[in-house]
Amino acid sequence: MRINYIEQIDNLIKKTTALHGTYNGKHASPEVKAKCKACLASANNLVSMIFAKRISNPYSDQLRSVEALFVIQDYISYEHIQICTEVLINLKNDIENGLVETLEDKVTAENFDDFLDHAEAYYNDKKIAQAGVIAGVVFEDTIRKICKKFEIEISGQKLENLINALKTENYIEKTKWSRCKVGAAVRGTAAHANWEELDEGSVRDTILLTRELLGEFLER
User: Fold this and answer.
1) Higher-scoring residue by pLDDT: 63, 108
2) Per residue in 64-75, pLDDT tens?
């Protein structure tokens, strides 16, 4: 399961494009201003999810500049929303052309513990969405590597099926199986970009559980 970044970007492009021509500078209605701010915040949040470990990137830098102008000037201009739309279009094109290395591309190439440290840092900073995305990715890849180690077929299998297979083969006990189901829920929620639904306690336990699984099965 991969986060459908393109679908999320397309949805935001539609929202920002719909706002073109609906405002009149400083005289925009509070409702329109709120929609503009919400689109900018959503765009910033999505970009931070995609880039995860790289705090500075050209897409975030441009979006933050637009947000700063909005705060300073207290109004949205056509140029502000146009910039937001163009940033999203450029990001989509770059991902489709393989020019952007996303979190899920990087996680299998770097040390899992480093990513979990990063997820924990986000968690401690109360950035639950970012923590949940990273923890979910590492959790799923950990489960798949454990299954591969024990020669459990992983090709085309959903995460939930792999967790059940580990329990059936007695590699994990019932308590850990139940915790793994929570981890799968965190992964699924993050993968569908329903970040507001991420539960703080579940994200924390997913981080802890993944560390336990790594120590028990893969760090020997």
Assistant:
1) 63
2) 777 766 665 566
How high is the pLDDT of residue 1?
Answer: 40
Q: Residues 6 or more apart from 52 whose CB is under 8 A from it?
A: 103, 106, 118, 130, 133, 134
3-class SS letters over the chain: CCCCHHHHHHHHHHHHHHHCCCCCHHHCCHHHHHHHHHHHHHHHHHHHHHHCCCCCCHHHHHHHHHHHHHHHHCCCCHHHHHHHHHHHHHHHHHHHCCCCCCHHHHCCCCCHHHHHHHHHHHHHCCCHHHHHHHHHHHHHHHHHHHHHHCCCCCCCCCHHHHHHHHHHCCCCCHHHHHHHHHHHHHHHHHHCCCHHHCCHHHHHHHHHHHHHHHHHHHCC
Domain boundaries, the chain: 5-101, 107-218
For 171-204, how does the pLDDT look when each residue is reduced to its tens digit (9 = 90+)?
Answer: 999 999 999 999 999 998 887 777 788 999 999 9
Stronger pLDDT, 154 or 64, i.e. the higher one: 154
Q: Tell me which CATH homologous superfamily contains domain 107-218.
A: Nucleotidyltransferases  domain 2 (1.20.120.330)
CB 126, CB 196: distance < 8 Å: no
